[in-house]
Design a protein that fits this description.
Distance between the termini: 28 Å
CATH architecture: Orthogonal Bundle
Strand order of the largest sheet: 1-2
CATH topology: Arc Repressor Mutant, subunit A
Low-confidence stretches: none
Number of helices: 6
Structural class: mainly alpha
Length: 124
């Protein structure tokens, strides 16, 4: 995570904030519970992260038009720009990890992480 942290510190975002931004950008308008699940965060932590991202004008939070009790989060233009500015470096860092590990071990790691995520889901 060191190289990722270094890349993100230049953009004034934490790795957790980056994960949230990536989920919101990839999924489009999304509810916080789904963000927490996909970014592997607890809801109380996500609430604080969303507040910070909104203060930085990287996301927009709105009430759901159908169910006013729900909230919908979407990427703001500044958030999309931040992702675009750092995506190539992020991909390059992950490619470096894959190159150092070798493709088979890297894929095995991803499979194990996905399996672990599935185990976590079944215990809820």
């Amino acid at each position: 995570m060191g190289p990722i942290r270094s890349m993100l510190s230049k953009s004034d975002v934490t790795e957790q904030q980056w994960r949230v931004l990536r989920v919101v950008e990839e999924e489009g308008p999304i509810e916080p519970t789904r963000i927490a699940d996909q970014a592997c965060l607890l809801l109380p932590s996500l609430t604080r992260i969303l507040q910070k991202l909104e203060e930085k004008q990287l996301i927009v939070r709105e009430r759901d038009k159908v169910d006013r009790r729900k909230q919908v989060v979407q990427i703001a233009p500044a958030g999309a720009e931040l992702i675009a500015a750092n995506l190539a470096a992020s991909v390059e860092l992950m490619n470096g990890v894959r190159d150092r590990m070798g493709p088979d071990r890297y894929e095995a790691l991803l499979d194990l992480l996905n399996e672990l995520d599935g185990i976590d889901d079944s215990s809820r």
